[in-house]
């Protein structure tokens, strides 16, 4: 992996070293999964559920997103979504709309980094 790609991803909160170990150092496969993250609909599903006040739908989307972020080592999002999942697991929406705003900004930063790196590869 080029140093610039590693730097861009790391600055977005992605732990590249941990991720590559999980992907058996297969950079091509990792980049494919990063690209699919950008195209995934979980964030839009979570946004819709939060807007609708649907705890069950928000929990389902947030829980799936938590797993996806963990698998791809997107630590910047993982550290934000884990507490959200626990609140939703308790069948509460307390603070979720506010937390979602921060998560959305982090998501945009992550997607921008991934897009930048994956188009360079």
TrEMBL record:
InterPro entries, A to Z: HPT_dom_sf, Sig_transdc_His_kin_Hpt_dom
SUPFAM superfamilies registered for this protein in UniProt: Histidine-containing phosphotransfer domain, HPT domain
Domain of life: Bacteria
Domain (HPt) ranges: 41-110
Name of the protein described by the UniProt record: Hpt domain-containing protein
Gene source species: Lachnospira intestinalis
Source species taxonomy: Bacteria, Bacillati, Bacillota, Clostridia, Lachnospirales
